[in-house]
């Protein structure tokens, strides 16, 4: 699980490994060729701002093109429900941004090598490649406002650091931008509170949204994340882990350790710890562990393979 803060911290350090002068020169050459210009890969500009990419053409389609335009990579799968929320949003923004970035979609089921090389922990996962340098942007479905913020920061860094400004997509120069769908003000306020670190305010705001819209997936995800961050705030990680290891029967120690596991990205460890706690407890302790596990499922996403596996394990110990 990655935090909702989708800042671009670290991008300059990653990109600095590339020779800025070389990337800038390539970008200038690409821009100078006008509407019929050649892309950074040496081939024609793409006819669409959205391309499907596989392992065979990744170097040409992504790495080489990234010298002339920021490339955003969307790791997705057909079975992934959050992917079905994020994917269309990214595609719409790619058309709206009109060539300022290129969206490359990678089906993880068909491209396991790329999935592993990028160290993807769960999907949807979004990375960028600028001047040949890869960097993570965010993981999981995210609201449009935050996605736009990340894209704007990416484009700004690409231009200021390397002079990479992208190019109009061939045949798309006159295409009108699709109107943006306004975000629910109450949901936007909840997101803003979470991003500002006001966890109490975020929890209240998300609960208010859910009171009116109980099925709002985005609000449920935001609430689960806010409550998780609220629980781990101020915890001494070393002490929590020692208490959990010293007394496996201490259910509350196991709950705290599982929260820290998830925040630290150790998803399977968090799930396994709670499944085992459910297995060896009864009554209120068992229910507390079961409920916490379901809450963590919300944070990761119901269609994540790790959640699917943990649900099966939970069912086996319960029944």
UniProtKB/TrEMBL annotation:
Which InterPro entries does the entry link to?
A: Thioredoxin-like_sf, Thioredoxin_CS, Thioredoxin_domain, TPR-like_helical_dom_sf
Q: Which Gene3D superfamilies match?
A: Glutaredoxin, Tetratricopeptide repeat domain
Q: Which SUPFAM superfamilies match?
A: Thioredoxin-like
Please state every residue range assigned to the domain named Thioredoxin.
Answer: 39-156
A Pfam family name for this chain? TPR_19
UniProt record, GO biological process: cell redox homeostasis; response to stress
**Which residue ranges does the record annotate as region Disordered?**
27-49
Q: Which PANTHER family match?
A: THIOREDOXIN, MITOCHONDRIAL
What name does the UniProt record give this protein? Tetratricopeptide repeat protein
